Batch of 2 targets.
Target 1
Amino acid sequence: MRAERLPLTRLQSLALSLASFLLLAVATMALGPLITGGGWWWLCAFMAAGTLGTGAALRALRTPPSLIAPLELLAVVVLLTMAFGGSSAFAFVVPTGDTFEVFRGLAEAAQRTIEQQSVPAIPVPALLFALAVGTGLLAIVMDLIVQTFRLPALAAAPALVPIVIPGLLIEAGAELGTVVLTAAAYLLLLRVDVRVRRNAELHNPDVGDDAPTVVAPRRVPIGSTLAASLGLATAGLLAASVLTIATPSVSSSFLLGTAQGTLFARGVSPYVDLGRDLRRPDPVPAFNYLADEGDRPYFTLLTIDRFEGEVWGATERAVDGDNTIERMPRPDGLAADVAGSEHPISIRVEQVRTTWLPVPYPTTSIQGLDGSWFWDDGSLNVRTVDSSTFGQTYEVTRLALDPTPQQLRGAGAPPAALADSLALPDDLPDVIRTTTEQVTAGAASPYDAAVLIQQYLRGPDFTYSVDAPVSEGYDGGGYDVIAEFLEKRAGYCVHFASTMAVMAREVGIPSRISVGYTSGTPSDERIGGTVRVDVDSHDLHAWPELYFQGVGWVQFEPTPGRGTVPSYSRPGAGEESLSGIPLGPSSTPGANGRPEGDPDRNLAGQAGGAASAASEWMRNGTLALVVLLLVTAPALVRSAQRQLRLRRVRGGPRPAGAAWDELVASAVDLGIPADARGTPRALAALVSGRAAFASPDAAAALVDLRDAVERERYGPDTGGDLPPAVARAGTPPAPASPLIDALGRVRSALAADAPPAERARATFLPRSLLAGARGGVGRRAPRDA
Amino acid sequence: MPRARLLRVQAWPRLTRRGGTLLVVGVLLLVLSLWFDLRDILLLAFVGIAMPLAALAFVALQAPRVAVQRAFEPPVVPAGAWATVRLVVQNRSRRTFDGARWRDTVQAGLAAPAEAILPALGRWEGALPSGDDTVRLEYRLRTPRRGVYAVGPLRIGTADPFGLARIARVVGNAHDLVVTPRVTELDATVGSVASIDGSLHGLQRRTHPNSDELIAREYRYGDPLRRVNWAATARRGELMVREEEQRGDPEARLLVDTTLSGRAAQAQARREPGDPPDLRFELGIEIAASVGVHLLEHGFRLRCDPLHAPASIAGQLGAGEVYRSPGGEHAFLEDLARLETPGRGRAHRDRERDQAAELIAPRSREARMPGIAVLIDPDVVEAHALVALRPTLEPAIAFVTESVSPTVIELLEESDWRIVTVRRPNEIASAWTSAWRDARGGAAQRSGAGRAR
């Protein structure tokens, strides 16, 4: 066969580049279902075009192939600078140190945003950055495969990457139309390659005496071959589409089913983790805030409104890109007649690293945050897609409501939209039902029932204990736990909050549970009439919020000894005009009152301790494996090369040549300045000068090898004139197994001669590979026969 | 005009490496996508499976019509030279013919160029041909050895537009390329008519029995009237006379050992087409060719006999084949080219042996002519036949290769055959020169002695 890599003309190279670009651009379209909007695709196309265009331009300038990939990498950096560097770059193009700082920030944010955003993601700058980098790298890989290695069929691998990703994250996977388009683009690349290859071969005829002369027709219309290509492609794609549609769904994703969303985490089950945190010692300062005297709100991190299954969590909701924090909405269900006042609070987060921002409910404005933050409908939880709370400083305007019991009592029926917040399972344990009936007997209104429930839970029968549920075996969430709790009557905030929420639903009041922090401990520091209040991880808390039409979501405090009982929820409220009586955390003894916690880890982390340990182990293992693979890659490549050569020695066309190549490579590996272009005799002389070849055995083996290769190179060509049968059966130039034997002896002699460091280097960093790579990926050595 | 024909399928359609890889990847993806229920990947998997299969069907169903003309330049090639093979491939289909590669099949022993791209051919232009449907291919073929080689048919491998599948088809027929033995230029000063005219008078005096073959020429002053050829005169309208005088049509006899019967211990019973040539036999053929061509070029009529019975010779070198001087060398060389290296079992030969002596035995005692024997490995019986033939030949030269047994050489020398040993082809010229010098000397001596007697 002919040498594979013939030099291409600029036009042919350009055609391949264009086809590659088309393939990559179409393939990135497959990410469409994952990301909202369409601007990101233009960025990807820009990156792909820039990278591949750079490659094409460099080839047009006849740059050495080995330089093209590094230069393309440079081009990616420049393009990224243009897109993201902004003012940090010199002349918008040349990256500076600041630019890389920006990149680093974006990369970190990208990692977070990938972990935090759910599908479809909002194309925040960090995500765009990740897409741009990914596209640029894919473009380099594709260019390398298509142009340098000239294996366009393998270009499917980089193109497959953006297609596979949607399948991992969403059930439907990439849109079939996009996939068909990608396949068509791939076929186009193959077609272009076939044409380019044929033309290259036609215009680079063999030289030599027996090379054929071909006088081609001057013009040939390619229209009809176009029809054949189109027809074949259409037939194949159509058949594939029909087969795909006709194939029934065999399994329902039983392996990846649980792994769905590993990349874009959705929802969090902090509910159980909260309890685990509360039992940990050592408070960690969470954040502090400056607020007016007496302004002590709870800070909500997230709201749990779905009471289903074992693990209760927030409704899975994608971040809505329109809900930016610049415009906070008015809370649900709040009528104008409810008394309220706005209080500014300035918060500085210390050690909390989550995606949920601690904000009081309700809040009318938030300012000063870094990153992209969005609020959720209803709960007004504020979360980020590319940043974290760590180290943030921001101003919040809190809307302090002071509904009167009359307003609450007079609340109408909840709207139908809140039906979800009333949902209870059919198999609700009887004890919950009966207890609720007993407690709320005689309540005149839902509000009175809620007050009675809170009073009941705060009553003397219930004790606060973070350890009792664990030792009794009913920790966590779920209805069975609540039933158990109602009998044992010992637990902590999670149990009280969920019990009250469930009982409220039983009565007919929409309810949800907020997880966050209580108001914390005031410090002595005062700044201009405001008090600095410190909140630490001991202030982690969960509390129920009940909905009353006209007032909205109203918080209650059923946990004895924790937090503040709102004035409107006290029995007999309305008669006295007292504001909330602080029953602050300081009033409870540390032994049982201060729940311990590590909010950093468990509110942010999606996995529990054991699971995270396992995943960490796995990650470390994978990392170790990758590192090991990287370290041994040269050795593996070299070993594979040796095996290939040995196979050629055993049954190839030029066995002695292969054996000699291997010998030269081994010598080069060991640092002997052997030049593969030299004659065998010169090389043998060079090698035999070494100490190990004083032994007659090794020297004889070397001479055998040398003679064999000389006979093969310069001797009569037994393969040409004679038919192959004779060449094989008659007088083979050199029998294979002695060659291998001799090669082994020479190699071991060479190795014995070298110092151990040199040997190790020969194994792990073989120089011969470097020499082969430096030789370039251009035209191969002249073909034989 | 060659007939347009559908190309014959030579082998089943096959997937290329690319197509095979795509198929394997497709199957792997199919398994994965079914396992994980990924519909998008499922589509790609089916593309990976369907495209190679569609390509297979495409190349199998696509039926290109192509006509091929093949010519050799020169038509007959001497061994060790180059022959140019010219091919004209014309598309006879209504569609453009693209995506093909060609390779000419040649018989073992010759090396055709590697597979190469066949340029795209436009649709067939029935009328007003502009040549866009035709491609001219030309390659040089080295012809190292004497023989008749089949060149063709043309193998055309077509692939689908995406390079996923291919099929090999053949078109046209095989043509024989005759590679004649190498001819060594021999010294013209020896072995010419003049040098051996002493042995030719008998022949010269002989009149030809068939007057029809006589050549008429115009009357010249002095021609006797009885020699006027009236029939020719009537045809030409001027006076013609019979040319009764024979040109000195000298004849020589060439005896070639084509059976190698001396090889008693020949292990190889039959020869296969691809076997390496028997170098001694080839040397013998080369000697015979050089001597024969030399003699023919110098006006001899060459009577060529195999040393053995004609039936035993597979080639067309028949017993007593006579080659005449102008142009005869081509026929002679071609016959030598077609001569196959013998290698038959002995049993076959014994039956023919009886006829041999009889056929070779002298038929007349007319004129003695120069006789040249090329011996490769004759047995004693054949040697005796040569001995018996000796009186009719003057001079009698035997070129022997090294494989001739000493017994045979002794026998021949005893009967006054001049023995010249040739070991290598490049000794032929010098052997010829020395052989004639000695033979002529010997003949002169003998004739001198005869006259003296």
Target 2
Amino acid sequence: MSSELIIQYILSGVTSGSVYAIVAIGFNIIYNTTGIINFAQGEFVMLGGMIAISLVPFMPLPMAVALAVVITAAVGALAQIAFIRWLKRPHVLQLIIITIGLSILLREAALHIWDEKVRSLPYFTGTVVTSVRIFGAYVSPQVFWVLGVCGAAVVLLSLFFGRTLIGQAMRACSADPLAATLCGINQKNMVTLSFVISAALGALAGCVVSPITQTHYECGTPLAIKGFTVAIVGGLGNSTGAVAAGLLLGIIEAFSISIMPMAYKDIIAISILLAVLSYRPTGLFVRREVGALKEF
Amino acid sequence: MSREWVPFGALAATVILIQLVTMFTNTQYYLTQLIMAALYSIVVIGLCLLMGYAGQISLGHAGFFAIGGYTAAVGTTLNLLPHRDHVLVRMAERAGLTIQTTNSWGVDILYFSPWITLLAALLLSGVISLLIGIPVLRLRGHYLAMATLGFGAIIYYILLGSRFLGEADGIYDVPGFGLPGGFTFDGARNNRVLSYYFVWALVIGLMVLMHNLVNSRPGRALRAIHGNEPAAMAMGVDTARYKLSLFVLSAVCAALGGVFMAHYNGGMGPTEAGTLKAVRYVAIVAVGGMASLWGTLGASVVLNFLSLRGYFGSLDDAVFGVVLITVMLVAPDGILRRLGMYTLRRNRDTAPDAFPVSAEKQVQRGTA
């Protein structure tokens, strides 16, 4: 394998990997404040892409993306308020089934609002054929958009959770909901906010990646499975781990194409998921003692 | 005959009554959907035991259904004539395990008897579920749901990506299932009534089996696991083993449904392994009230019948999503209990709560 080809594979792996990382962080945000896994996380990515695609004929691209993010965040908030917020002491099986139902509803809604056609946003800079040459490999400038936006999102989120009062309040809720409530934090609002942030994050990823991977009403589920894989491998709740695991999975997938048929590409991520869940459900980057405190 | 068997007699009577009514009103086409609904019910009854009685969610049962169906379809459409000299084929032929005939294209074919492929399908699904179940059933809640969802997705992608499994087209031209007495179980119109009685006899048999299981020592152990796993363990219940056995049993049930679906439809496609199908099975169990075999059977027949008749139109999948959310929001113990019908059921004391009060341990926390 030539060095140009290797760079090519790595770059394409990093591109899809950063999207997986964003989806995984979306899982983490909700998991951290509520202890539940939102099975509809992949649908937020799909919705973001689809809404931006519909808006782009009427307004400049950055505005369409921003509006798509806002609308998807609103959808996330509405879904949480309608289906989860008012439940009293819901059972975990109940919550799983509700988010699964939500993912189906969003997907079917997308099928009826748009259709089964594959669409995509225009490239943010240049066109399909524009390419930048680095180390002998040719990549689309969109790759840098994806990396830049995902990187910025991760940095901003860590600032938000580390430095702002609301971010710290959300972390308090995840550490101990009862103590947080006693400190005057409105835990219910924090949970709704976590759905808003994670829907917005998913939508943003869905927009930047749309020109490369294209958007389709069914593209949510595979993304959700891969995002969950990344979240698990990186240690559920651990966003730095998610970034590392996301890039790793993206690169493994990119290289897998050279040794096995394209059709089996998606199987790799799931096999990793099953293997890690079976033998090290705390994730690869978390010390065992920390993991031992969690329940699986 | 004790009162315990009255519901089974009532079910058998209903099955016969429906057939007679369709005969006299000349609406026998309804039987087609009732046959398919029965086949899906076989899957759902097994899943009901796993979800309702052992409290383990599985989004992988569409995968087991497809494993069953594809094994039967591949085994009975593979033409063995070119390989007739192979020692295995010769042995199978001598033992009377193959069938030679001329297919609809006028080509002579030799294929494995459906009984052999049925056995192979049940064995294969049993072994796969055992291998998957050992690591995966140690997980709980979300982890188990995602792991089984992942398993189903793997099966789907393998079916979709493999040339010899027909890729997106699936496998077709699957022959009927020859039963003793010269009757064939297939989708042909003149076999419809007998096929109808055959599958429903299968369903009733399975219900009797499951009913006995639930009301036996293993059944009590399973309810104990669902109610409070550590307490069950402390009482000496080998929880891991019970959960695994039930997972395998329900996977074999799913494969059984898949085998007969392949013979009935004359083929099977990869969508049978899709996530939407798996979610549909979970939805039906949820509507039925989780830990209610009869509720699940009722929900399965009604929902599958309506869906197969096309009453939901293009909203077919959306309906199941809405049903799933609505049931979980307003009546998580199942519709029947919410309506007060629960008291009509005999096994009131033995049926566990759909969601026992052990929620405090579900507040899982991570590190921010």
